[in-house]
Structures are given as structure tokens and as C-alpha cells.
Specification:
- About 40% of the residues lie in helices and about 15% in strands.
- It is an alpha/beta fold.
- Helix 1 (about 1-10) runs parallel beside helix 15.
- A hairpin with a 2-residue loop joins strand 11 and strand 12 (about 370-375).
- The strands form three sheets. A seven-stranded mixed sheet has the order 4-10-9-8-7-5-6, sandwiched between helices.
- It folds into two domains: about 1-70 and about 335-444, Aspartate Aminotransferase, domain 1; about 75-330, Aspartate Aminotransferase, domain 2 (3-Layer(aba) Sandwich), CATH 3.40.640.10.
- It has helices spanning about 1-10, 10-20, 65, 75-85, 95-110, 120-135, 185-190, 200-210, 235-245, 265-270, 295-305, 320-330, 335-360, 385-390, 390-405, 425-444, and strands spanning about 45, 50-55, 60, 115-120, 140-145, 190-195, 215-220, 250-255, 275-280, 290-295, 365, 370-375, 405-410, 415-420.
- It binds pyridoxal-5'-phosphate.
């Protein structure tokens, strides 16, 4: 209560802006993920590791645009690339050289030879699924229960942002639409299986095979990034790779969040498992809207032979690919990833130390530039273990403590922190000190 009133009192300019905004913006925001009760906090700007709101409060940014801004805000090299491109024109819907350079670099980092671009993560997963369906001639899509892959109908199913009373047995989980407006026929075509359970995945695939509806693809995050962070258990990804190959199912790693934030070559590099396709967005465009799909020669042949139309007016937009080129070649260097690893080790160690000293229920989990404190006495391995054990009261309180002490977080408690390459030890210490203060208040 006290932390809530403190935040309300500190964000009166946001409140005024909200009153103005909600006349013509539904909920006062541009995307439902920006909603917040009693009002959203409106930002004015950002630079490096910092953002500031319309009340003039400055924060260390651990939200980083849901992990898009791993290069930090207003990075001079990204600014230079955009400034040099602008006077030469920003949009033709014709190919430009930067698109080639970006494709070469993505192919090098991921070990997948063929690439296409989109404008968002949702478009990347939508097109990747269509390509997999065309390549296999199958309709069913398999995903992980609880995972988010964007807002098109096929993947707005069985997502972990809400509590479900009963999701059925592990071998036969129910497909549940996320929000209204998703046709039941589409929901029925998407089948979810639990994370970290390759045996359950295989049993579900076998059942689908007897029903004559083998999946076209398994789309998954190699490490789940929307229940905090849930890492794959040893051997799990290798087993998924083996099973999908055996049934001729296209394995898609959705690297919209993990690509460029957990290693130079994303989850594919970190876990050393090669999928048939990857989808990317977020950090790729360095703050400009851009996504990408990568795939093997075989799978992507359905694009090359024109049987699938992978299209978009703004695909490969010159401004976006200029930013992505500078991002990949000049900003997200090997040193940058070493720095992120250093910072993440420091924040993980700091949070673990607080948990130990105050005997809090929970543990810290992280990888690359991402991590979180999972407030659970038991290890979370999938959606069910997350929902059953998560101390949501503590997660909510941690959010308020951070926001009131200059540490800016994503609005949802299911999100993780994302660090940028501009963050330094002082930013990390600010986060850990907030957590320490909360633990002290709770246990005194
Ligand atoms: N895939 C994953 C793993 C995501 O986290 C997201 C967005 O949060 C998406 C896809 C969708 O990306 P976008 O919001 O750019 O459409």
C-alpha cells in the first residue's frame, strides 16, 4: 500500500497524460502490453542505460524495450547509421545493400544459410510457421504451453500470462485461446506441450500421428523468457532436436528475445543445438522495427520457388537494415557480450546473496543479458511449476520497490531484466540495493 501511494504521488504528470491519452487511445496506450493500473508511466526519453519519465524521474533501465535495447538508448553508432541513411531516402520497397550485409552476418552467427526480413517478431513467427506448413504439407502447429510468440491467431493459444484452472494432463494439454477473437478452428490446430519434457512431447506427437495430424513445426524458445527465465534442463533441447528430426517436423527456435541478447549467436550458440529455422526481432533493429527469419536451404526453398509469399511493404526497410548493420557489425561485438556476461554474473550473485541473507523463498536465474529472481521455493521448469509456486505478492512488491527507487522494469511480473552493453557496475549495484532494501523491509 505504502509503495503504491508513493508511486502514484511521484507520477502525477503521467496521470495527467493518461487522462488526455485515453480520449482517443484505447486504454491510453498504443499496445495492451503498455497498460497499467491505475495509469501507465509515460516516458519522455532515454540515453545509454537510463530513461526518464514525464515527471522528470530518471531510472536505470532494466526493461530496455522488452530487451530490444541491448545496445543502450541513443547509441552514437546507431544514430550515425540512421543519420547517414536518412538524407538518401528511407523507403523504396526495393532491395538495398545493407540488407545483404545483415543477411551475411546473421547467416554467419546462426549457421543457417537463408534469411528474410519482417517488421516485427509476430510477423517473423507467422511467416516461419507458414513456411513450415508449406514445406511439410501439414497444418498442425506444436508449441510449448505458456510460451508467447506474438499476436497472430495461430500462436495466441496456451500462453502463460494468465492463470488457468485446469489445463489437462501433461500428455494431452488443452489448447486455450489467449483473449477473445481467435477462431476456435485455429485454436484446435495449435497443440501445446510442457517445457522441459521431451517424453511428453513425443507421446503427444505419436497421438497426433494416429489422428493423421502430425505437426508441421515445433515453435519454441530454447530458454523460456515469459515466465521470468526458465532454462532448458540438460539434454532437453538435444532430445527435442532428435524427436522433431525423426518425425520430419520443422524445429523453429523463436529467438525474438534470446537472439542477440544471450550470445552473439543467440540460443543456438549458447545451447549448441541447430534448429531448422529461427525467428528474430527485438534487439536486431536496435530500436527500429525489424524482424528476421533464418532457415536451412531445404526449408527456405519454398520461399525461393515462390510457393510461399513471404512479403511486406516495409521488409528490409533501408533505415532498419542500416541500423541493424551497424548494430551487428560495430556495436554488438564479442567484447560487448563479454561485458554483458560480467554484468549478469554480478547481478545474479548480488541477488543470490540477498536471498541467502534474508532467507527469502526464491532463487536467481539468468543467462546472457537476461535474468530474474523467481520467487518460488521450488525449481520452476515449465508453466505449471511456475503458476503453482510463484509468490506473486513478492514479485509485485519487488516491482514497486524498483520503480520507486530509480530502477525501471517491465509492467508485467512475468518479465525478466535485460541489461544493455552501456550498463555498468553502478547500475547493477542499484538493482541489488533495491532488492536488499525490500528484503530488509519484509523481514524486519
Ligand atoms: N516471440 C517472442 C519470444 C516474443 O517475446 C515476442 C514479443 O514479446 C514475439 C515473438 C512477438 O514480437 P513482436 O511483439 O515484435 O510482434
Amino acid at each position: 500500500g505504502r509503495e503504491e501511494s508513493r508511486l502514484d504521488a511521484r507520477t502525477t504528470a503521467s496521470k495527467a497524460m493518461y487522462e488526455q491519452a485515453h480520449h482517443h487511445l484505447s486504454g491510453g496506450v498504443a499496445s495492451s502490453y503498455q497498460l497499467r493500473d491505475p495509469w501507465p508511466i509515460y516516458l519522455e526519453g532515454g540515453s545509454g542505460s537510463r530513461v526518464w519519465d514525464v515527471d522528470g524521474t530518471e531510472y536505470y533501465d532494466f526493461h530496455n524495450g522488452f530487451g530490444s535495447m541491448v545496445q543502450g538508448h541513443a547509441h552514437p553508432l546507431i544514430g550515425k547509421a540512421i543519420a547517414e541513411r536518412f538524407p538518401k531516402g528511407t523507403h523504396f520497397a526495393a532491395p538495398t545493400e545493407d540488407a545483404i550485409v545483415v543477411g551475411d552476418e546473421l547467416a554467419r552467427r546462426w549457421g543457417l544459410p537463408k534469411w528474410r526480413y519482417t517488421n516485427s517478431g509476430s510477423e517473423a513467427t507467422m511467416d516461419a510457421i507458414r513456411i513450415a506448413r508449406a514445406y511439410t504439407g501439414r497444418d498442425t502447429v506444436m508449441k510449448i504451453f505458456g510460451s508467447y510468440h506474438g499476436h497472430h491467431d495461430t500462436v495466441m493459444v496456451s500462453i502463460g500470462f494468465q492463470d488457468y484452472d485446469d489445463i489437462g494432463p501433461a500428455d494431452n494439454l488443452t489448447s486455450i485461446p489467449y483473449g477473445a477473437g481467435v477462431p476456435q478452428a485455429t485454436v484446435d490446430m495449435t497443440v501445446a506441450v510442457p517445457f522441459n519434457d521431451a517424453a511428453a512431447m513425443e507421446r503427444r506427437i505419436q497421438r497426433l500421428q494416429t489422428e493423421n495430424r502430425l505437426p508441421a513445426c515445433v515453435i519454441m524458445e530454447a530458454a523460456m523468457m515469459n515466465l521470468g527465465v526458465v532454462l532448458p534442463e540438460p539434454g532437453y533441447l538435444e532430445a527435442v532436436r532428435e524427436i522433431t528430426a525423426r518425425y520430419g517436423i520443422v524445429l523453429i527456435f523463436d529467438e525474438v528475445k534470446t537472439g542477440l541478447t544471450i550470445a552473439a549467436g543467440g540460443a543456438r550458440e549458447r545451447f549448441d543445438v541447430l534448429p531448422d529455422m529461427v525467428t528474430m526481432s527485438k534487439a536486431l533493429g536496435a530500436g527500429l522495427p525489424m524482424g528476421a527469419i533464418g532457415g536451412t536451404e531445404e526449408v527456405m526453398s519454398v520461399v525461393e520457388d515462390h510457393s510461399v509469399y513471404q512479403v511486406g511493404t516495409y521488409n528490409g526497410n533501408p533505415l532498419c537494415v542500416a541500423a541493424a548493420r551497424a548494430n551487428l557489425l560495430d556495436v554488438l561485438t564479442p567484447d560487448a557480450y563479454a561485458h554483458l556476461d560480467h554484468l549478469n554474473a554480478r547481478i545474479i550473485e548480488g541477488c543470490d546473496d540477498v536471498i541467502r541473507r534474508y532467507n527469502l523463498p526464491g532463487y536467481t536465474v539468468g543467462i546472457g543479458s537476461k535474468g530474474c529472481v523467481t520467487f518460488s521455493e521450488y525449481k520452476v521448469v515449465d508453466y505449471l511449476t511456475y503458476r503453482q509456486n510463484q509468490r506473486e505478492d513478492l514479485a509485485d512488491l519487488a516491482w514497486l520497490f524498483n520503480m520507486n527507487r530509480g530502477v525501471y522494469m517491465t509492467p508485467g511480473r512475468e518479465e525478466e531484466w535485460t541489461l544493455s552493453i552501456i550498463h555498468d557496475d553502478a547500475a547493477i549495484d542499484a538493482y541489488v540495493e533495491c532488492f536488499d532494501e525490500m528484503a530488509h523491509e519484509l523481514t524486519k
